[in-house]
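We both want to read discrete structure tokens more fluently, so let's practise on a single case. Would you write everything just below, so we can both look at the same thing?
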Amino acid sequence: MAARSLSPLERDALREVASIGAGHAATALSQMTGSRIMIKVPEVALLPVERLHDLLGPASARVATVMMRVMGDFTGTTVVAADAEVAHTLCGMLLRRTALAGGDAFDPMEESTLKETGNILCSAYLNALSDFLGLMLLPSVPSFAVDSVESALNPSVLRAQGTHHPAFAVETAFRIEGSDLAQTAQFLLLPDLAALEVIFNAIQLAS
């Protein structure tokens, strides 16, 4: 199935599913940090895997990623990706401390925080999608990496079935209560190709 644009109906349905997941993730992160964390989903898109780098800047830009495999009634790959500087700032927000110096170096506390945040976000989004589809979807143990956009989002790394493999991109904005500044990451889901028909058929049935 070649990547295509989402129809208004499909975009609205998937944004609603993602917003439900974001609400659950915000609650979990608030409990984890002791601060009220709010998460919004400004945009949902469907892109071929070869275009995912457009979401995160130049090919050489440095990004922090938390990657998990999807298991259950269908398989796939999920990635939470953010510019490395944004990831440091997000850690400072969640840990309630001044963000450490930027660059590729993340201390063990930052790495653990990002992995746990990615796990919470992925689980919440997959649970919302599971409820919508009536399927069981589970994430694997998360892995953390810092690399260039080109390397991090390489189709082979994401286990894509070709460069045109469709991927859902969910823009995810984190904000702590009392601050107007949001830190934005991308949640990417690459379901296996057979699952795409299941997702779009469920949207049609729900409309």
Summary: The domain at 8-206 is CATH 3.40.1550.10 (Chemotaxis protein chec). The chain has a mean pLDDT of 91. Residues 8-33 form the longest helix (26 residues). The chain has one domain: 8-206.
